[in-house]
Amino acid sequence: MTAATIAPSRSRRRARFGVRLGLVALAIGACSAFGAPAHARGPDGIADVAEKVIDAVVNISTSQTVEAKGGGSNSMPQLPPGSPFEEFFDDFFKNRRGPGGGSKGGERSDNPPRKTNSLGSGFIIDTSGVVVTNNHVIADADEIHVILNDGTKIKAELVGVDKKTDLAVLRIKPTKPLVAVKFGDSDKLRLGDWVVAIGNPFSLGGTVTAGIVSAKNRDISSGPYDSYIQTDASINRGNSGGPLFNLDGDVIGVNTLIISPSGGSIGIGFAVPSKTVVGVVDQLRQFGELRRGWLGVRIQSVTDEIAESLNIKPARGALVAGVDDKGPAKPAGIEPGDVVVKFDGKDVKDPKDLSRVVADTAVGKEVDVVIIRKGKEEIKKVTLGRLQDPDKVQAAVKTDEPAPEKPVTQKALGLDLATLSKDLRTRYKIKDSVKGVVVTNVDASSDAAEKRLSAGDVIVEVAQEAVSSGADIQKRVDQLKKDGKKSVLLLVSNGEGELRFVALSVQ
After folding, report:
1. For residues 354 and 341, what is the distance between their CA atoms, to the nearest angstrom?
2. Residue 499 DSSP class
3. Of 282, 326, 336, 285, whose CA–CA distance to 306 is shortest?
4. Given 118, 145, 162, 166, which residue is catalytic?
5. CB atoms within 10 A of CB 124
6. Residue 142 gets which letter from DSSP?
7. 136 classed as catalytic
């Protein structure tokens, strides 16, 4: 009835409809209040969790000196031409700067550097004063302070950061006893489990929200080791670096980012799982940096077409597209075309799995790597190296400059193919070390175009056999058709010698 009286009405018909709607709503409310079990409204243990851990959750305050670029307090705001406020602001800012709009002496001065402040969240994992937060919360900060739940503000020292997982470890010198929390096992989480987020959204410290685990092992392509916990617990700006708890009061994740068109929570938040956090934090505390394992291979996904070409059922694993000459995989006998399906006893379903498990494995450890080569499983023993510079990404350099003379080409698989010559190497900037057959044109309607083959790519192998001419390629394709194959596996190089596998239809 209340809803009907609040809603305005313009006719008796609308009023009657509003009354009915109010009665229906009241009836639904009655069912919810009296007919539903208590657990439908959420678990009773949330208040106990909050009370137990709230003092271990902290606010992170940072300050940074930045150059003003015309957007500081002394800058005139941008206004539409002809705005009635244009003249007012023009006079105001000129008067603030002194005669002529400049500084003392009438000389114009650049905007001085200014301090910017930001706030985030974190949590204490050791009563000696060790704090975990996000790297992006403290990145480029000149000063970092940790604010305890009772308002005590303590200057923090940066122990170490890991940009790849967006984690950072700080250290403070406590002036009184601290409360610390411990990590739980994120692998034991189930979809639908209740979780509690505590943090500092919009500078409102000590904020508690609750929700469920919406998804696990979520890959949102934000980094090489994505494996987020997705939750609908309300997470907003300022929650970054704060803990995600299970109902035992253990940290099972670090709240890191949200998906939101408005900047506020829409129920899609992501946390780094505690399984990842524990390993990163331990290394940062011990070494001040991450020492990740390195296999020395370049990998790609095993598509259904590639799996069919390699006689792998079902499609799985990580396809080795290239092997670093100085990496651990080379002396172990791992080659391009091998598919890694198990690493150190752990199944590898896709390239992300391999990247994560290699990175988490101790440098110098000897591990068994199970590969599939030409349809058969083999075991290779590899002693892992250390990943030195994971940020380097080399891009291929290509050119579409026309050649002085058109080379003799042969058509196959929707490609114009030519034997490599000095002129073609110069035109497409192909290194002398790259061998094979160069692509000079791609039919826009072909499967090759859809798989992003382009002029300047070099076909090195067809069905894992080396080729040196267009005729070689056509011969291999014809044989595959006779054998009833639906696709052909190509090993393709760019001009720099970086390899990848591409499966094309032969039908």
Report:
1. 9
2. E
3. 336
4. 166
5. 25
6. S
7. yes
Q: What letter would DSSP give residue 41?
A: G
**Strand, coil or helix: 296:** coil
Q: Which one-letter DSSP state was computed for residue 56?
A: G
Of 153, 126, 155, 128, nearest to 141 (Cα)? 155
CA distance 202 to 237: 6
Structure tokens at 17: 């409809």
- Find the length of the chain: 507
Per-residue b or e along 34-48, where b marks 16 or more CB atoms closer than 10 Å to that residue's CB: eeeeeeeeeeebbee
- φ, ψ of residue 223 to 5 degrees: the values are -170, 170
C-alpha 116/C-alpha 141 separation (Å) is 9
Catalytic: 166? yes
Cβ atoms of 462 and 490 closer than 8 Å: yes
Q: Is the link from the previous residue into 314 a cis peptide, with omega within 30 of 0?
A: yes
The Cα 122–Cα 180 span in angstroms is 11
Give the per-residue pLDDT at 68.
Answer: 58
Within 8 A by CB and 6+ apart from 284, the residues are: 159, 160, 161, 162, 167, 168, 169, 290
Question: pLDDT-based confidence at 1, cuts 50/70/90?
Answer: very low
The predicted pLDDT at position 407 comes to 67
Dihedral through CA 201, CA 204, CA 208, CA 213, nearest 10?
0
**C-beta neighbour count of 141 within 10 angstroms:** 19
Query: Of 136, 265, 355, 472, which is the active-site residue?
Result: 136
Q: What average pLDDT is seen over the chain?
A: 81
Q: Do 195 and 252 touch, CB atoms closer than 8 A?
A: yes
Catalytic, 39? Answer no
* Greatest C-alpha distance within the chain: 89
Backbone dihedral angles phi then psi of residue 36, each to the nearest 5 degrees: -90, 145
> According to the model, what pLDDT value does residue 81 have?
46
Work out the burial of residue 384: count CB atoms within 10 Å of its CB; fewer than 13 is exposed, 13-18 middle, 19 or more buried. buried
| Each residue's pLDDT tens digit, 83-96 | 444 454 455 445 44
State the SS3 of 129-172: CEEEEEHHHHCCCCEEEEECCCCCEEEEEEEEEECCCCEEEEEE
Sign for the CA dihedral angle at 27, 30, 36, 38 comes to: positive
pLDDT category of residue 152 using cuts at 50, 70 and 90:
very high
Burial class (CB in 10 A: 0-12, 13-18, 19+), 191: exposed
pLDDT at 98 over 70: no
The reply to whether the predicted model has a pTM over 0.85 is: no
Question: Residue 220 pLDDT > 90, yes or no?
Answer: no
- Selecting among 214, 234, 240, 487, the annotated active-site residue is 240
Encoded tokens for 392: 């380097």
